[in-house]
UniProtKB/TrEMBL annotation:
Keywords: Monooxygenase, Oxidoreductase. The keyword Oxidoreductase applies. Pfam families: NMO. This is Nitronate monooxygenase. It comes from Novosphingobium cyanobacteriorum.
Length: 469
C-alpha cells in the first residue's frame, strides 16, 4: 500500500499514529467494534460516551428503561447508564486495539450530566483513554477535568473566536494536555453544528480561511504548530486536501472521518441505515433547526424530518387580546376564546383543521402549530417521559441543574432526541427517526470503492484513506 504523499504519522499519547480520527457519533452510532478497529488500524478511534450501550451477562445490549416517577430520578438513572455503557465500550475498544493507535472518548458538553458522566468514565478507565473530544457548547471545565485524570483533551470548535474564549478563560492553565483542536465545519459536519448567529446557514464558507484564522489565533496564544488542527466535516478523499497537508500556513493537520466509518463491517448501525446511505443524492442531508438543543444539526431529510418541516409550516402567531392585525378570534384547535390571529391566518387554521390537524399547540415564541390528535398524544407523552438527556432541552423545558426547568414553554416543533436516536440505533424505522449524517454522505453512491454493495472492514477503509482515496 502506498501512502498518500506528505501524509506522516503524528505523535499522540506517546506513540506514532496516523493523523486520522474516527468521529465519535453519539448514542450507539460509534462503539467498541468500530473505534477499537480504527485504533488497531493505526488511527485514533473514538468511543462515544453519549448514552453508550452496556451489556448483560449473556452479552446482550441492556435496554435503557426509565421507570422512575420524576424526571430528576430518570436523569440520575440516565447518568448511571451512560457511565456503565461508556466504561464497557472503552474497555472492549482498548482490547480490540491491541496496543496500536489510540482510544479517545467523545462527549457533548450539552448532554445532561456531561461533567458527571465524563468524570465517572475517566475514573473507571484510567490508563485506557488517551484523550477526550468535546463540543456542542463551550466546555470550559474540560481542561480542568483532563488535568485531574491526566488525559489529553481536544476541544471541538467552529471558529478561532470560540477557541480564544476557551483558551483565555480556562485552557491556558492546562496547555500541556491540549493534544489537538478539532475544527468542525458548521456547514458540512453531521450531527450538531456550531453555526453562530453571524453565519448564514444557506451560505457555506470555505473552510481553509477559517482554519487558517484558527491557527493564527492559536499561534497568537502561544500554542505550538505541532498541536494539530483536526479538520472535521466534508472529508472524503485526502487527495482533495492535498494543499492542507504539510502546509506551513496551517501547521500540523489531522483529518476526522465521521460519515465514512458508518458504512463498514464493524459499524454498529443497523443494516437498513447502512443500505440507505448508498442511495443518497446531493442535498439529501438537511441543515435544520429542530433539535431540542437549540443548535443547528445535519441529518438525512427522511419522512421524520419532513414531518417536522411540515409541522413548522402549519404555524401562526397569536395574541391573547385583539391588537394590531390580530383582529380575528381563533375558533378551531383551541379551547377558549382568548386567541386572536390575523384574518388570513384564521382561514389557514380552518383549512388545516379540516385536513385533520385539529389541535393547536402553543410554542415559546407566541405562535401555535397545528397537529393531528396522534401527533399531539405522542408529543405530550414524550414530554412527560423526559429523562433529562440534555443540559437544556427545548422540547421538554428540562434543565439539569438548579430548579430543573428552563422557564420556557415546552416546544412542540421539536422532538425527544434521546428516544429517536436510541430507536434508530437499535433497529427502529429509518423513515420515522432522526438519521444523522454529514453532507458528503451522497458520495457513498458515487465512490467506486462501495460499488457492487461492497462494505469494507474498518482496516480496509483506513488503508484506502491512506492512499488518498
Amino acid at each position: 500500500m502506498s501512502v498518500f504523499k506528505g501524509l506522516k504519522p503524528i505523535l499522540y499519547g506517546g506513540r506514532e499514529v496516523w493523523p486520522l480520527v474516527e468521529g465519535g457519533k453519539g448514542v450507539a452510532a460509534t462503539n467498541h467494534m468500530s473505534s477499537g478497529a480504527w485504533a488497531a488500524a493505526g488511527g485514533i478511534g473514538t468511543v462515544s460516551a453519549v448514552n453508550a450501550d452496556s451489556y448483560d451477562a449473556e452479552g446482550k445490549i441492556v435496554r435503557q428503561v426509565y421507570e422512575q416517577l420524576t424526571r430528576k430520578e430518570r436523569h440520575e438513572q440516565l447518568i448511571r447508564y451512560a457511565i456503565d455503557g461508556a466504561v464497557e465500550q472503552v474497555r472492549r475498544a482498548y482490547d480490540i486495539a491491541g496496543g496500536k493507535g489510540a482510544i479517545n472518548i467523545n462527549v457533548l458538553w450539552e448532554m445532561g450530566g456531561a461533567q458527571a458522566v465524563l468524570e465517572g468514565v475517566l475514573e473507571k478507565t484510567r490508563g485506557l483513554v488517551t484523550g477526550v473530544t468535546c463540543g456542542a457548547g463551550m466546555p470550559y471545565k474540560l481542561s480542568e477535568i483532563a488535568a485531574r485524570f491526566n488525559v489529553n483533551y481536544l476541544p471541538i470548535v467552529s471558529s478561532g473566536r470560540a477557541f480564544r474564549a476557551l483558551w483565555k478563560r480556562a485552557y491556558h492553565k492546562v496547555s500541556h494536555l491540549l493534544a489537538a483542536v478539532v475544527y468542525e465545519d458548521p456547514w458540512l459536519a453531521g450531527g450538531h453544528n456550531g453555526l453562530s448567529n453571524a453565519e448564514d446557514p444557506r451560505k457555506p464558507e470555505d473552510p481553509y480561511p477559517r482554519v487558517k484564522a484558527l491557527r493564527d489565533t492559536m499561534r497568537a496564544e502561544g500554542v505550538s504548530d505541532d498541536v494539530p488542527i483536526v479538520m472535521a466535516g466534508g472529508v472524503w478523499y485526502l487527495r482533495e486536501w492535498n494543499n492542507w497537508i504539510d502546509n506551513p500556513e496551517l501547521g500540523a493537520i489531522a483529518f476526522q472521518f465521521g460519515t465514512r466509518p458508518l458504512l463498514t463491517e464493524e459499524s454498529p448501525i443497523p443494516q437498513p441505515w447502512k443500505d440507505h446511505l448508498r442511495t443518497l443524492e446531493p442535498g439529501d442531508v438537511l441543515l435544520h433547526r429542530f433539535s431540542p438543543t437549540g443548535f443547528y444539526s445535519s441529518a438525512v431529510r427522511n419522512p421524520f424530518l419532513q414531518s417536522l418541516e411540515a409541522r413548522s409550516e402549519r404555524q401562526i402567531p397569536y395574541s391573547r387580546v385583539a391588537a394590531g392585525e390580530h383582529t380575528a378570534q381563533l375558533d378551531v384547535g383551541v379551547r377558549g376564546k382568548n386567541f386572536w390571529v390575523t384574518p388570513g391566518d384564521l382561514a389557514r387554521a380552518r383549512e388545516w383543521f379540516g385536513a385533520g390537524f385539529t389541535h393547536a399547540l402553543r410554542t415559546p415564541d407566541d405562535t401555535m402549530v397545528f397537529v393531528t390528535p396522534s401527533e399531539r398524544d405522542e408529543i405530550q407523552q414524550d414530554q412527560k417521559d423526559c429523562m433529562g438527556c440534555l443540559s437544556h432541552c427545548g422540547f421538554s423545558s428540562w434543565k439539569d441543574h438548579d430548579d430543573y426547568t428552563t422557564g420556557r414553554l415546552a416546544d412542540p416543533r421539536s422532538f425527544c432526541i434521546q428516544k429517536t436516536l436510541q430507536d434508530i440505533a437499535h433497529g427502529g424505522d429509518i423513515d420515522q427517526n432522526l438519521m444523522f449524517a454529514g453532507h458528503a454522505a451522497y458520495r457513498f453512491k458515487q465512490d467506486p470503492f462501495y460499488s457492487n454493495n461492497f462494505t469494507p472492514t474498518v482496516k480496509q477503509l483506513v488503508d484506502r484513506i491512506l492512499t488518498g482515496d
